[in-house]
Design brief:
274 residues, alpha/beta, 5 strands, 33% helix
């Protein structure tokens, strides 16, 4: 990965693009308040439909991508944005791991649509909902559901100074230790996903006495199966444990593998990978 190229005569150009999602991660820009106004003094925002700036064909230094690839049109659009971008950053669970809409990957999409819509033939969709990295090269992934303003500003600030953004990939548990939270897993026996989830939210849920929902995806070198077996000791059934992994970040490889195994789906290992 490379830092963005220096511009002597003009400000770096930024684009914010939406794919299948609920727009929540784009609010990380708008919620910045005064810092967002300061940002516009440092960069030119040339495409950001939610903020009223539209130029889908603009060439940009940094493209921020929210949402998953779920339709044939999106598949073509993301390839075009990749060509027009020097640096492409995916933001949020939908863009990095398919998001909630990727739950449809576990069912027959045509059968599912026929049971809901009167005329499913008019719906243009792919058979699965997938992360951006499955289709084009991604330079940086910012996980979270939703991401927060600090993550965005830290990434832009790093790139403007010519360094690669540093992303913390340790567990929510470590964040709880740093802020002296009482462990809800040990003290309350709740199925907290903190031991296998990447930090970034500031341990938001454990800080109010609730179990972590794994909004920020799997931490580096996580061991979901071990945590699942701990949950079995609490009396949770395998189906319940499977749902904890196959939730917001259900297509993240570590969570997908553990979720399928607790659901009873045998995982076949490709011998070529051994």
């Amino acid at each position: 990965m490379l830092p963005i190229k220096s511009h002597q005569t003009q400000k770096p150009k930024i684009g914010v693009y939406k794919f299948t999602s609920d727009d929540g991660c784009q609010l990380a820009f708008l919620n910045a308040g005064d810092e967002f106004l300061l940002l516009t003094e440092l960069v030119d925002i040339v495409h950001f439909a939610e903020a009223g700036v539209v130029d889908i064909d603009a060439k940009v230094d940094i493209a921020f991508i929210e949402g998953s690839i779920s339709t044939p049109d999106e598949l073509q659009r993301i390839k075009k944005i990749r060509v027009n971008s020097q640096y492409l950053i995916t933001i949020g669970a939908c863009a990095t791991a398919g998001g909630i809409q990727a739950l449809r990957n576990f069912v027959d999409v045509k059968e599912w649509m026929s049971s809901i819509y009167a005329s499913p033939a008019f719906i243009q969709t792919l058979v699965s909902s997938t992360s951006i990295s499955e289709h084009v090269r991604v330079d940086l992934e910012i996980w979270g559901c939703p991401i927060n303003t600090k993550q965005i500003l830290d990434a832009i600030r790093s790139l403007l100074f010519g360094v690669h953004p540093a992303i913390k990939r340790d567990a929510v548990c470590m964040e709880c230790k740093r802020i002296n939270n009482v462990c809800v897993l040990v003290s309350k026996g709740e199925p907290c996903m903190g031991p296998v989830t990447m930090t970034g939210c500031g341990a938001l849920c454990p800080s109010v006495g609730r179990a972590c929902y794994a909004c920020y995806g799997p931490k580096e070198d996580s061991n979901p199966n071990s945590l699942g077996r701990w949950f079995e000791g609490f009396g949770l059934l395998p189906e319940k444990i499977s749902r904890l992994f196959l939730h917001i970040n259900n297509q993240a490889p570590a969570f997908l593998k553990a979720g399928n195994e607790f659901k009873g789906i045998k995982i076949v290992i490709d011998k070529k990978e051994i």
